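Troubleshooting log. The previous run stalled partway through. Resubmitting the same two chains, unchanged.
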Amino acid sequence: KAGVTQTPRYLIKTRGQQVTLSCSPISGHRSVSWYQQTPGQGLQFLFEYFSETQRNKGNFPGRFSGRQFSNSRSEMNVSTLELGDSALYLCASSLEQTNTGELFFGEGSRLTVL
Amino acid sequence: DAKTTQPNSMESNEEEPVHLPCNHSTISGTDYIHWYRQLPSQGPEYVIHGLTSNVNNRMASLAIAEDRKSSTLILHRATLRDAAVYYCILRDPHAGNNRKLIWGLGTSLAVNP
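Second attempt completed without errors. Output:
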C-alpha cells in the first residue's frame, strides 16, 4: 500500500512568487491535514480537509490556502512568498472522520524562499 | 485551545528505559492523548494514543495520570533508532471547525551507545 506522497520534495522560490504543493493521501483516506515545520516554531498546524471541506484552520495569514479534490488529493498554495515561509511543509492523511485516527505523514516538501 | 508542555531535550543510554513526560493541564474530558515521533529527515510517525487507561503496543507504553493532566511515554529499552523528536498532542473527536491542533517543539531524545 503506497504511503502519503508529497510533491515536489524540494523547491526554491523568490520573494513575491507563489507556490503550490501537492499531497496524495493513502488510498481510501479522506482526511488530509497540512503542517509547517521550522526550527524555531516546530510543527504548526495549517489546515485540515475532509471530503473536500475545510474542517480546521490554524493561525496563518490568508496567503496560505488549500483545497481538496474529490479523489482526496490535496493542494496547498502560498501566495506572495516571504522569507519566513521557508520551511518543511508536511501533509498527513487519516482514514477516519473523527480526530482520533492515526495520522500518516509524507516526507514533506522543503521550500526555500530567497 | 489545548496545549501540551514537554522538555526540550532528554538523553538516554542504549537498552535502558526512557520516560518522556508531557503536561496537559488544560485537557478536556474528550481529548485523546497522542504521541508521535519524527526521525531525522522524515515525517512524524504515530507511536501510541490513549484516553484514560494506560496503553501498551509493540513500540511503547503510555501511562496516563489519574487526573489526566499529565502523561508519560515509556520506551522500555531504548535503541539508537529511537533517537527522534517526540511529540505529545491532544486530539478531540468532537472538535468543531475552529479547533486548532498544537504540536509545539516536542522533546528531542538522544540515545547514547
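Takeaways: The two ends of chain A are 37 Å apart (CA to CA). Chain A is about 0% helix and 55% strand.
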